[in-house]
């Protein structure tokens, strides 16, 4: 976030460091996730870089809880973190047993299928779609080609029956387009998978210059977590490998004409 808004405001690391009373190497360490600024420094960054209040609040919470490896917050708060992870991290892996991940959804899917999962107001749906668009466009605009792997349960594809045929076709074409990109891979799990394998994402810095620390994102009904604890990340890595082993390529799944999807949408 520091790097993003410093670049956006056209300021150097030395300039920001001088304002905050630290050297430019310290600012560089913040931007490379080697060190976390303290709360006072976050307040200074927010002021001088004109960081939006919501993001500033999130950064303050991170600074206050720097020692915690499992950062708990509501979905909206942690979604702001995911937005930046998708802009800067080098490896992005997502599993979802019920829905197509937001960065791969079409407008029709967002407004036609997502509302069936819970009651959303029109304003919430509108804001949610705007946020998904921002995230997907920022990710696809990256020139460093981060590795993106999506593993989706075939339940998510069978739920396309709730859309009209043109909208089903558009969503499948969206998935096929993303899968065709050299740095993207979409795979489908069409068999039983481990109990408790609810949706989660793994983000890694990889080769990205400004990628954040490795972490796992997961959520329950009223909260979500960004997990940096190595032993817990390892358990999610193990689960990811199980799911990967049970998955097949999107093209293979569609070519099998499972549930008529490939036949309806060549």
Structure description:
With 266 residues, the chain is an alpha+beta fold. Helix content is 50%, strand content 15%. The protein contains 13 helices and eight strands. It has helices spanning 2-9, 13-20, 24-31, 39-49, 53-64, 75-88, 107-112, 122-140, 154-158, 165-180, 230-246, 250-255, 261-264, and strands spanning 70-73, 91-96, 147-153, 184-189, 200-204, 215-219, 224-227, 247-249. Strands 1-7-6-5-2-3-4-8 form an eight-stranded mixed sheet, with helices on both faces. Strand 6 and strand 7 (224-227) form a beta hairpin. Helix 4 (39-49) packs antiparallel against helix 5 (53-64). The chain is globular. The termini are far apart. The model is unreliable at 262-266 (pLDDT under 50).
What are its keywords?
alpha+beta; 266 residues; eight-stranded mixed beta sheet; 13 helices
Layout of helices and strands:
Blueprint: H1 2-9, H2 13-20, H3 24-31, H4 39-49, H5 53-64, E1 70-73, H6 75-88, E2 91-96, H7 107-112, H8 122-140, E3 147-153, H9 154-158, H10 165-180, E4 184-189, E5 200-204, E6 215-219, E7 224-227, H11 230-246, E8 247-249, H12 250-255, H13 261-264
Parallel strand pairs: 2-3, 3-4
Antiparallel strand pairs: 1-7, 2-5, 4-8, 5-6, 6-7
Helix pairs in contact: 2-3, 4-5, 6-8
